[in-house]
Amino acid sequence: MTTAAAEIRYLHESHPQGTETYQIAPGILWARLPLPFRLNHVNVWLLRDADGWTIIDTGADTADARAVWEALFTGPLADARVNRLVATHGHTDHVGLSGWLTERAGDVPFVSTLGEWMSAQVRIWDAQSKSATDGAQRFLTAHGCDDDTLASYRADRERTHALLGPLPITLTRLRDGDTIRFGERDWEVIVAGGHAIEHASFWCAEDRILIAGDQILSRISPMIGVFPAMPEADPLADYLASLPRFKALPADALVLPSHGLPFYGLHARADQLARHHELRLDDLGRLMDRPRVAMELARGLFARAVAEGQGRLALAETLAHANYLVGRGRAVRTKAPDGRILYGRAEEPDSELMAAH
Ligand SMILES: [Zn+2]
Protein backbone atom coordinates (compact mmCIF):
# COMPACT_ATOMS: atom_id res chain seq x y z
CA MET A 1 0.00 0.00 0.00
CA THR A 2 1.31 3.44 -0.84
CA THR A 3 0.85 5.74 2.10
CA ALA A 4 -0.24 9.29 1.49
CA ALA A 5 2.97 10.50 3.15
CA ALA A 6 5.01 8.85 0.40
CA GLU A 7 3.19 11.06 -2.08
CA ILE A 8 4.64 14.22 -0.50
CA ARG A 9 7.98 15.12 -2.01
CA TYR A 10 10.05 18.11 -0.95
CA LEU A 11 11.73 20.36 -3.46
CA HIS A 12 14.71 20.76 -1.10
CA GLU A 13 15.40 18.78 2.05
CA SER A 14 16.90 21.90 3.67
CA HIS A 15 15.85 25.52 4.06
CA PRO A 16 17.60 28.88 3.83
CA GLN A 17 19.49 29.87 6.99
CA GLY A 18 19.79 33.40 8.36
CA THR A 19 19.79 35.87 5.50
CA GLU A 20 20.22 33.23 2.76
CA THR A 21 17.72 32.86 -0.06
CA TYR A 22 17.01 29.82 -2.21
CA GLN A 23 15.79 30.17 -5.77
CA ILE A 24 12.59 28.12 -6.08
CA ALA A 25 11.94 28.82 -9.76
CA PRO A 26 13.25 31.47 -12.14
CA GLY A 27 12.61 34.83 -10.47
CA ILE A 28 11.22 33.38 -7.22
CA LEU A 29 13.39 33.57 -4.10
CA TRP A 30 12.60 31.95 -0.77
CA ALA A 31 13.72 33.57 2.51
CA ARG A 32 12.92 32.35 5.99
CA LEU A 33 12.37 34.73 8.90
CA PRO A 34 12.72 33.80 12.57
CA LEU A 35 9.59 33.86 14.77
CA PRO A 36 9.60 34.02 18.56
CA PHE A 37 7.00 31.23 18.86
CA ARG A 38 6.98 27.47 19.10
CA LEU A 39 6.49 27.69 15.33
CA ASN A 40 9.87 29.34 14.91
CA HIS A 41 9.88 30.57 11.31
CA VAL A 42 7.79 31.92 8.47
CA ASN A 43 8.60 31.75 4.77
CA VAL A 44 8.51 34.86 2.61
CA TRP A 45 8.81 35.02 -1.17
CA LEU A 46 10.61 37.60 -3.29
CA LEU A 47 9.48 37.71 -6.91
CA ARG A 48 11.45 39.50 -9.59
CA ASP A 49 9.28 41.78 -11.71
CA ALA A 50 10.59 43.16 -15.00
CA ASP A 51 11.38 46.43 -13.25
CA GLY A 52 11.62 45.56 -9.57
CA TRP A 53 10.43 43.17 -6.86
CA THR A 54 7.22 41.94 -5.31
CA ILE A 55 7.44 40.80 -1.68
CA ILE A 56 4.98 38.29 -0.21
CA ASP A 57 4.46 38.43 3.58
CA THR A 58 6.67 40.09 6.19
CA GLY A 59 7.24 38.12 9.40
CA ALA A 60 6.42 39.44 12.87
CA ASP A 61 7.81 42.73 14.15
CA THR A 62 11.00 41.66 15.91
CA ALA A 63 14.53 43.05 15.79
CA ASP A 64 15.71 39.74 14.28
CA ALA A 65 13.19 39.88 11.44
CA ARG A 66 14.00 43.52 10.70
CA ALA A 67 17.68 42.60 10.56
CA VAL A 68 16.98 39.88 7.97
CA TRP A 69 14.99 42.36 5.87
CA GLU A 70 17.81 44.91 6.07
CA ALA A 71 20.20 42.23 4.78
CA LEU A 72 17.77 41.36 1.97
CA PHE A 73 17.47 45.04 1.02
CA THR A 74 21.24 45.32 0.69
CA GLY A 75 21.48 41.81 -0.85
CA PRO A 76 19.11 40.32 -3.43
CA LEU A 77 16.67 43.27 -3.39
CA ALA A 78 19.41 45.87 -3.93
CA ASP A 79 19.36 45.74 -7.73
CA ALA A 80 15.91 47.27 -8.21
CA ARG A 81 13.08 48.99 -6.40
CA VAL A 82 10.28 47.15 -4.59
CA ASN A 83 6.98 47.47 -6.45
CA ARG A 84 4.51 46.11 -3.89
CA LEU A 85 4.00 44.13 -0.72
CA VAL A 86 1.41 41.36 -0.93
CA ALA A 87 -0.02 39.64 2.18
CA THR A 88 -1.55 36.17 2.17
CA HIS A 89 -3.43 36.99 5.38
CA GLY A 90 -3.49 39.29 8.38
CA HIS A 91 -1.93 37.13 11.10
CA THR A 92 0.95 38.59 13.07
CA ASP A 93 3.62 36.39 11.49
CA HIS A 94 2.52 37.48 7.99
CA VAL A 95 1.84 41.23 8.37
CA GLY A 96 3.60 42.16 11.62
CA LEU A 97 6.12 44.26 9.68
CA SER A 98 3.81 45.40 6.86
CA GLY A 99 3.62 49.06 7.89
CA TRP A 100 7.36 49.23 8.44
CA LEU A 101 8.19 47.33 5.24
CA THR A 102 5.99 49.39 2.91
CA GLU A 103 7.65 52.52 4.32
CA ARG A 104 11.15 51.04 4.21
CA ALA A 105 10.64 50.00 0.58
CA GLY A 106 9.66 53.53 -0.40
CA ASP A 107 5.93 53.87 0.32
CA VAL A 108 4.88 50.96 -1.87
CA PRO A 109 1.32 49.62 -2.26
CA PHE A 110 0.06 47.04 0.22
CA VAL A 111 -2.01 44.33 -1.46
CA SER A 112 -4.35 42.00 0.45
CA THR A 113 -8.00 41.07 0.85
CA LEU A 114 -10.20 43.56 2.67
CA GLY A 115 -11.12 41.02 5.34
CA GLU A 116 -7.49 40.38 6.25
CA TRP A 117 -6.47 44.04 6.31
CA MET A 118 -9.46 44.87 8.51
CA SER A 119 -9.17 41.88 10.81
CA ALA A 120 -5.52 42.72 11.50
CA GLN A 121 -6.57 46.28 12.39
CA VAL A 122 -9.23 44.85 14.70
CA ARG A 123 -6.62 42.65 16.36
CA ILE A 124 -4.45 45.70 17.08
CA TRP A 125 -7.46 47.49 18.56
CA ASP A 126 -8.49 44.37 20.44
CA ALA A 127 -5.13 44.08 22.22
CA GLN A 128 -5.55 47.59 23.63
CA SER A 129 -9.24 47.37 24.51
CA LYS A 130 -10.30 46.83 28.10
CA SER A 131 -13.81 45.75 27.09
CA ALA A 132 -12.42 43.20 24.60
CA THR A 133 -10.09 41.85 27.30
CA ASP A 134 -12.98 41.50 29.76
CA GLY A 135 -15.14 39.83 27.11
CA ALA A 136 -12.37 37.37 26.27
CA GLN A 137 -11.93 36.48 29.95
CA ARG A 138 -15.68 35.76 30.21
CA PHE A 139 -15.45 33.59 27.07
CA LEU A 140 -12.53 31.60 28.47
CA THR A 141 -14.18 31.19 31.88
CA ALA A 142 -17.45 30.02 30.29
CA HIS A 143 -15.46 27.35 28.43
CA GLY A 144 -13.87 26.09 31.63
CA CYS A 145 -10.38 27.61 31.45
CA ASP A 146 -8.26 27.51 34.58
CA ASP A 147 -6.25 30.42 35.97
CA ASP A 148 -3.09 29.35 34.12
CA THR A 149 -4.82 29.53 30.76
CA LEU A 150 -6.33 32.91 31.65
CA ALA A 151 -2.87 34.18 32.59
CA SER A 152 -1.30 32.83 29.40
CA TYR A 153 -4.06 34.49 27.42
CA ARG A 154 -3.26 37.87 28.96
CA ALA A 155 0.48 37.41 28.30
CA ASP A 156 -0.29 36.40 24.73
CA ARG A 157 -2.28 39.56 24.07
CA GLU A 158 0.55 41.74 25.29
CA ARG A 159 2.98 39.84 23.11
CA THR A 160 0.75 40.09 20.04
CA HIS A 161 0.47 43.80 20.61
CA ALA A 162 4.26 44.09 20.47
CA LEU A 163 4.74 41.84 17.40
CA LEU A 164 1.97 43.23 15.22
CA GLY A 165 3.19 46.62 14.11
CA PRO A 166 1.02 49.25 12.47
CA LEU A 167 -0.64 48.17 9.22
CA PRO A 168 -0.24 50.19 6.03
CA ILE A 169 -2.95 52.86 5.98
CA THR A 170 -3.94 52.26 2.36
CA LEU A 171 -4.96 49.02 0.69
CA THR A 172 -4.97 47.59 -2.81
CA ARG A 173 -7.80 45.15 -2.48
CA LEU A 174 -7.73 41.54 -3.70
CA ARG A 175 -10.89 39.56 -4.37
CA ASP A 176 -11.47 35.90 -4.99
CA GLY A 177 -10.95 35.02 -8.66
CA ASP A 178 -8.92 38.15 -9.46
CA THR A 179 -5.86 37.76 -11.63
CA ILE A 180 -2.87 39.69 -10.34
CA ARG A 181 0.40 39.97 -12.20
CA PHE A 182 3.72 39.97 -10.36
CA GLY A 183 7.05 38.27 -10.80
CA GLU A 184 6.33 38.28 -14.55
CA ARG A 185 3.58 35.72 -14.07
CA ASP A 186 -0.20 35.87 -13.84
CA TRP A 187 -1.61 34.59 -10.55
CA GLU A 188 -5.19 33.65 -9.82
CA VAL A 189 -6.27 34.76 -6.35
CA ILE A 190 -7.91 31.98 -4.35
CA VAL A 191 -9.66 33.43 -1.28
CA ALA A 192 -10.59 30.85 1.34
CA GLY A 193 -11.75 30.79 4.94
CA GLY A 194 -11.01 28.55 7.88
CA HIS A 195 -7.52 29.55 8.97
CA ALA A 196 -8.34 33.23 8.52
CA ILE A 197 -11.39 35.19 7.37
CA GLU A 198 -10.26 35.88 3.79
CA HIS A 199 -6.94 34.16 3.29
CA ALA A 200 -5.42 34.60 -0.19
CA SER A 201 -3.41 31.94 -2.02
CA PHE A 202 -1.95 32.59 -5.46
CA TRP A 203 -2.04 30.12 -8.34
CA CYS A 204 0.11 30.38 -11.46
CA ALA A 205 -1.44 27.98 -13.98
CA GLU A 206 1.32 28.42 -16.54
CA ASP A 207 4.13 27.28 -14.25
CA ARG A 208 1.91 25.22 -11.91
CA ILE A 209 3.07 27.05 -8.77
CA LEU A 210 0.82 27.63 -5.76
CA ILE A 211 1.80 30.26 -3.21
CA ALA A 212 -0.31 28.59 -0.56
CA GLY A 213 0.14 30.83 2.47
CA ASP A 214 -1.13 28.99 5.56
CA GLN A 215 -4.08 27.35 3.80
CA ILE A 216 -2.09 24.23 2.88
CA LEU A 217 1.02 23.44 4.93
CA SER A 218 3.36 20.51 4.39
CA ARG A 219 3.79 18.94 7.82
CA ILE A 220 1.65 20.75 10.34
CA SER A 221 -2.07 21.27 10.08
CA PRO A 222 -3.10 24.94 9.70
CA MET A 223 -4.60 26.33 12.90
CA ILE A 224 -8.41 26.33 12.69
CA GLY A 225 -9.72 28.10 15.77
CA VAL A 226 -12.71 29.80 17.36
CA PHE A 227 -11.85 32.97 19.24
CA PRO A 228 -13.74 35.27 21.64
CA ALA A 229 -14.89 37.79 19.03
CA MET A 230 -16.90 35.15 17.11
CA PRO A 231 -17.81 32.47 19.65
CA GLU A 232 -20.29 30.61 17.44
CA ALA A 233 -18.24 30.69 14.25
CA ASP A 234 -17.78 27.49 12.24
CA PRO A 235 -14.38 27.99 10.57
CA LEU A 236 -13.82 24.27 10.09
CA ALA A 237 -16.73 24.16 7.64
CA ASP A 238 -15.07 26.96 5.68
CA TYR A 239 -11.73 25.21 5.77
CA LEU A 240 -13.02 21.82 4.66
CA ALA A 241 -15.03 23.52 1.89
CA SER A 242 -11.82 25.10 0.59
CA LEU A 243 -9.90 21.84 0.13
CA PRO A 244 -11.71 20.71 -3.06
CA ARG A 245 -10.70 23.99 -4.69
CA PHE A 246 -7.07 23.09 -4.13
CA LYS A 247 -7.64 19.51 -5.24
CA ALA A 248 -9.04 20.91 -8.49
CA LEU A 249 -5.55 22.26 -9.26
CA PRO A 250 -3.11 19.90 -11.02
CA ALA A 251 -1.65 17.17 -8.82
CA ASP A 252 1.90 18.04 -9.86
CA ALA A 253 1.70 21.66 -8.65
CA LEU A 254 4.68 22.98 -6.71
CA VAL A 255 3.32 24.22 -3.36
CA LEU A 256 5.02 27.09 -1.54
CA PRO A 257 3.66 27.08 2.03
CA SER A 258 4.28 29.82 4.60
CA HIS A 259 5.73 27.35 7.10
CA GLY A 260 7.84 24.25 6.41
CA LEU A 261 9.30 23.17 3.08
CA PRO A 262 8.05 23.67 -0.49
CA PHE A 263 6.62 20.40 -1.76
CA TYR A 264 4.89 18.38 -4.44
CA GLY A 265 1.83 16.32 -3.51
CA LEU A 266 -0.98 18.88 -3.25
CA HIS A 267 -3.79 16.33 -3.64
CA ALA A 268 -2.33 13.90 -1.12
CA ARG A 269 -1.77 16.72 1.36
CA ALA A 270 -5.32 18.07 0.95
CA ASP A 271 -6.63 14.54 1.60
CA GLN A 272 -4.43 14.16 4.69
CA LEU A 273 -5.66 17.47 6.10
CA ALA A 274 -9.32 16.56 5.55
CA ARG A 275 -8.71 13.16 7.16
CA HIS A 276 -6.92 14.76 10.11
CA HIS A 277 -10.04 16.82 10.89
CA GLU A 278 -12.42 13.88 10.38
CA LEU A 279 -10.45 11.90 12.97
CA ARG A 280 -10.49 14.83 15.42
CA LEU A 281 -14.27 15.15 14.94
CA ASP A 282 -14.78 11.45 15.66
CA ASP A 283 -12.52 11.66 18.75
CA LEU A 284 -14.41 14.70 19.97
CA GLY A 285 -17.78 13.00 19.50
CA ARG A 286 -16.53 10.12 21.67
CA LEU A 287 -15.33 12.53 24.38
CA MET A 288 -18.84 14.00 24.62
CA ASP A 289 -20.17 11.04 26.61
CA ARG A 290 -21.95 13.67 28.72
CA PRO A 291 -22.13 17.47 28.36
CA ARG A 292 -18.70 18.90 29.08
CA VAL A 293 -17.00 22.30 28.95
CA ALA A 294 -14.74 22.77 25.94
CA MET A 295 -11.55 23.01 28.00
CA GLU A 296 -12.21 19.54 29.39
CA LEU A 297 -12.71 18.28 25.84
CA ALA A 298 -9.50 20.04 24.78
CA ARG A 299 -7.56 18.16 27.47
CA GLY A 300 -8.83 14.91 25.97
CA LEU A 301 -8.33 15.90 22.35
CA PHE A 302 -5.01 17.74 22.57
CA ALA A 303 -3.50 16.41 25.79
CA ARG A 304 0.09 17.11 24.79
CA ALA A 305 -0.55 20.68 23.64
CA VAL A 306 -2.36 21.44 26.90
CA ALA A 307 0.46 19.89 28.95
CA GLU A 308 2.96 22.01 27.02
CA GLY A 309 1.19 25.26 27.92
CA GLN A 310 -0.71 25.62 24.63
CA GLY A 311 -4.10 25.33 26.36
CA ARG A 312 -5.58 28.42 24.78
CA LEU A 313 -4.83 27.26 21.23
CA ALA A 314 -6.04 23.75 22.07
CA LEU A 315 -9.29 25.33 23.28
CA ALA A 316 -9.64 27.35 20.06
CA GLU A 317 -9.13 24.21 17.92
CA THR A 318 -11.49 22.18 20.09
CA LEU A 319 -14.21 24.84 19.78
CA ALA A 320 -13.79 24.83 16.00
CA HIS A 321 -14.44 21.10 15.94
CA ALA A 322 -17.26 21.31 18.51
CA ASN A 323 -19.03 24.11 16.62
CA TYR A 324 -18.70 22.07 13.44
CA LEU A 325 -20.45 19.13 15.15
CA VAL A 326 -23.18 21.49 16.40
CA GLY A 327 -23.63 22.88 12.89
CA ARG A 328 -24.12 19.35 11.51
CA GLY A 329 -26.59 18.34 14.25
CA ARG A 330 -24.07 15.91 15.80
CA ALA A 331 -23.65 17.87 19.05
CA VAL A 332 -25.58 20.41 21.09
CA ARG A 333 -24.34 23.49 22.88
CA THR A 334 -26.14 24.40 26.12
CA LYS A 335 -25.62 26.94 28.86
CA ALA A 336 -25.48 25.66 32.42
CA PRO A 337 -27.12 27.70 35.23
CA ASP A 338 -23.64 28.81 36.36
CA GLY A 339 -22.96 30.32 32.91
CA ARG A 340 -20.61 27.62 31.68
CA ILE A 341 -21.13 26.47 28.08
CA LEU A 342 -21.44 22.72 27.66
CA TYR A 343 -21.08 20.58 24.56
CA GLY A 344 -22.76 17.19 24.44
CA ARG A 345 -23.54 14.58 21.86
CA ALA A 346 -26.86 15.10 20.09
CA GLU A 347 -29.54 12.61 21.11
CA GLU A 348 -29.84 9.70 18.72
CA PRO A 349 -33.29 9.70 17.16
CA ASP A 350 -35.49 7.30 19.14
CA SER A 351 -35.56 4.23 16.94
CA GLU A 352 -38.82 2.78 18.31
CA LEU A 353 -40.56 6.10 17.90
CA MET A 354 -39.21 6.35 14.34
CA ALA A 355 -40.41 2.82 13.61
CA ALA A 356 -43.92 3.69 14.82
CA HIS A 357 -44.30 6.37 12.16
ZN1 LIG B 1 1.37 31.68 9.58
List the main descriptive attributes of the protein structure presented here.
357 residues; alpha+beta; Metallo-beta-lactamase, Chain A; seven-stranded mixed beta sheet
Q: How would you concisely characterize the structure shown here?
A:
By secondary structure, the chain is of the alpha+beta class. It is built from twelve helices and 17 strands.
CATH architecture: 4-Layer Sandwich
Overall pLDDT metric? 93
End-to-end separation in angstroms reads 46 Å
Rg of Cα set = 21 Å
Strand content: 15-25%
Total domains: 1
Quaternary structure state of the chains depicted: single chain
What form results from the Cα inertia axes?
globular
Structural category: alpha+beta
List the strand order in the largest sheet: 1-14-13-12-11-10-9
The sequence of SSEs as H and E is EEEEEHEHHEHHHEEEEEHEEHEHHHEEH
Number of strands: 17
Give a quick account of the main beta sheet: strands, pairing sense, barrel closure: 7 strands, mixed
Unreliable parts: none
CATH topology: Metallo-beta-lactamase, Chain A
What compounds are bound to the protein? zinc ion
Number of helical regions:
12
Please identify the top-level CATH class.
Answer: Alpha Beta
